[in-house]
């Protein structure tokens, strides 16, 4: 009987000691993880700011794919909400309280397996690498006595949440990079192009340096037009006057459509041209310009397969409907290819 009393007393001492140990653990916690993702800041912001995108990379939903998700009337920016209820991830809800391109703050309310609140936050900072972003994901809050006891057995908040944050950032990286690489090529076929006046600047280069050259030429055209109060009347395009595969060279012009004939100053590198209306074989590329060679190749194959005669008296060109200046995600870019054809003519052998 005396031994039993001693055991009970010892148990009480251990229990009280353990309770004191739990009580003196830090009440506040903060867990963060940081990585660099090779994507523009604005592109990443769109994926994080839109709660409907979260199931695609959320590390907890991956563990509980049958969890029920509900979205509020607003899913983007301040006031966006969504809630979850699952066997593994429990029950809770989140609401965005602050949202800018470089910072997002959210309030989280956990309902089960135990009730608590926390502050979830994101930081998006430009990296020294071109088109790369430093992404930080963090959470901070307070722990009650029972939460501290649970976390003590689970190795603490850092070990409990940190690996999930790392997994989430890795999935976000993979998702964004894969989506940025998506593209499609649509062979439209015969179409009418209205033609018209355009300002242009001509250059020659190696074929693989054409884009590099036009990236410098289009801003020069834009600056000239702004200085002379000239408004564009259409989307920019590149006119290919000569494409020499034997010597790997090209002669081309960067062009911007204008409403009327413009008299440029004598000696100016920028001139005004006119394109007659005509019939072309048209192809649309939705996605990164790196896929333009494939689009041109498929266009030529279609022309050959359908025995369509190319008009040698006119030049082919490509237009840029949606450019990187307005659409940072390469998957959103939109460009068109026009190869001049002879209507109702037999293709020469």
Note poorly predicted spans: 14-25, 345-349
| CATH top level assignment of the largest domain | Alpha Beta
CATH architecture of the largest domain: Alpha-Beta Barrel
Q: Helix/strand-derived class?
A: alpha+beta
Percent range for β-strand residues = 35-45%
How confident overall, as mean pLDDT?
Answer: 87
| Count of discrete domains | 2
Number of helices: 7
Key descriptive features of the protein:
349 residues, alpha+beta, Alpha-D-Glucose-1,6-Bisphosphate, Chain A, domain 4, Multidrug-efflux Transporter 1 Regulator Bmrr, Chain A, 2 domains, nine-stranded antiparallel β-sheet, seven-stranded antiparallel β-sheet, elongated, disordered C terminus, AraC_E-bd, SRPBCC family protein, transmembrane helix, Reg_factor_effector_dom_sf
Q: How would you describe what is shown here?
A:
By secondary structure, the protein is of the alpha+beta class. The chain has 2 domains: 24-180, Alpha-D-Glucose-1,6-Bisphosphate, Chain A, domain 4 (2-Layer Sandwich), CATH 3.30.530; 184-346, Multidrug-efflux Transporter 1 Regulator Bmrr, Chain A (Alpha-Beta Barrel), CATH 3.20.80. Helix content is 29%, strand content 39%. The strands form 2 sheets. Strands 8, 9, 10, 11, 12, 13, 14, 15 and 16 form a 9-stranded antiparallel beta sheet that branches. Strands 1-7-6-5-4-3-2 form a 7-stranded antiparallel beta sheet. β10 and β11 form a beta hairpin. The longest helix is centred in the middle third of the chain and has 25 residues, at 156-180. The chain is elongated, with a radius of gyration of 31 Å. Mean pLDDT is 87; it is low at 14-25 and 345-349. The chain crosses the membrane at residues 6-24. This is SRPBCC family protein.
């Amino acid at each position: 009987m005396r031994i039993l009393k001693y055991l009970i007393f010892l148990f009480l001492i251990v229990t009280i000691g353990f309770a004191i140990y739990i009580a003196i653990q830090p009440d506040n916690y903060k867990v963060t993880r940081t990585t660099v993702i090779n994507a523009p800041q604005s592109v990443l912001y769109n994926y994080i700011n839109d709660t409907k995108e979260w199931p695609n990379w959320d590390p907890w939903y991956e563990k509980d794919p049958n969890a029920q998700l509900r979205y509020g009337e607003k899913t983007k920016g301040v006031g966006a909400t969504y809630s979850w209820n699952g066997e593994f991830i429990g029950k809770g809800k989140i609401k965005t309280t602050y949202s800018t391109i470089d910072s997002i703050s959210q309030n989280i309310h956990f309902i089960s397996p135990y009730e608590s609140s926390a502050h979830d936050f994101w930081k998006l900072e430009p990296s020294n690498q071109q088109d790369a972003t430093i992404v930080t994901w963090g959470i901070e809050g307070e722990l009650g006595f029972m939460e501290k006891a649970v976390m003590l057995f689970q190795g603490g908040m850092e070990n409990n949440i940190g690996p999930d944050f790392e997994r989430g950032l890795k999935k976000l990286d993979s998702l964004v990079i894969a989506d940025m690489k998506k593209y499609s090529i649509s062979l439209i076929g015969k179409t009418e192009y209205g033609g018209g006046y355009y300002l242009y600047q001509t250059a020659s280069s190696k074929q693989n340096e054409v884009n590099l050259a036009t990236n410098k030429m289009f801003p020069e055209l834009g600056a000239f037009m702004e200085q002379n109060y000239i408004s564009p009347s259409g989307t920019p395009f590149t006119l290919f006057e000569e494409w020499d595969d034997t010597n790997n060279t090209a002669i081309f012009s960067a062009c911007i459509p204008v409403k009327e004939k413009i008299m440029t100053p004598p000696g100016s590198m920028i001139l005004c041209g006119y394109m007659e209306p005509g019939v072309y074989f048209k192809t649309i590329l939705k996605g990164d310009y790196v896929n333009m060679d494939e689009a041109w190749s498929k266009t030529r194959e279609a022309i050959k397969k359908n025995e369509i005669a190319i008009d040698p008296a006119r030049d082919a060109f490509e237009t840029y409907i949606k450019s990187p200046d307005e659409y940072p995600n390469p998957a959103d870019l939109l460009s068109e290819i026009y190869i001049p054809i002879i209507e109702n003519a037999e293709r020469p052998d």
